[in-house]
């Protein structure tokens, strides 16, 4: 919360259940990684669905703290998220945070990027 009582950031997520979803961008995740790797890497892990920080509060570490809090509380430390491949600032943020990008299956790149929490 800001000094004025306003919410400056938020994060949401949930544990990824089996069977892996096929709506929204999930089909692209499966195409990118393959069903076996999705089961191994993502099912049972905590999916960070949204992370947002108001523009005036950026650069003060709030996004980093929110992301770390969710990842640290994840089952067995396993967390993941996806981002749009054209969101360069967002991709750079997750890379700075040392989140790992599992390699996509050859020829199955998509417009989304999957990130796994650092170990």
From TrEMBL:
Q: What keywords does the record list, in alphabetical order?
A: Transferase
Q: Which residues cross the membrane?
A: none
| Residues in N-acetyltransferase domain copies | 46-97
Source organism, top-level taxon: Bacteria
The protein's GO terms of the molecular function aspect are: acyltransferase activity, transferring groups other than amino-acyl groups
Q: Which SUPFAM superfamilies match?
A: Acyl-CoA N-acyltransferases (Nat)
Q: What's the protein name?
A: GNAT family N-acetyltransferase
Q: Which organism is it from?
A: Streptomyces coryli
């Amino acid at each position: 919360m800001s000094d004025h009582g306003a919410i400056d950031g938020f994060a949401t997520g949930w544990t990824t259940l089996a069977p892996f979803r096929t709506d929204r961008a999930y089909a692209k995740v499966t195409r990118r990684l393959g069903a076996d790797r999705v089961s191994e890497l993502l099912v049972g892990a905590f999916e960070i669905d949204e992370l947002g920080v108001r523009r005036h509060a950026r650069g003060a570490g709030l996004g980093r703290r929110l992301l770390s809090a969710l990842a640290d509380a994840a089952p067995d430390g396993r967390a993941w998220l996806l981002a749009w491949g054209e969101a360069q600032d967002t991709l750079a943020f997750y890379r700075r945070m040392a989140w790992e990008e599992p390699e996509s299956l050859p020829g199955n790149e998509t417009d989304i990027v999957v990130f796994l929490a650092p170990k």
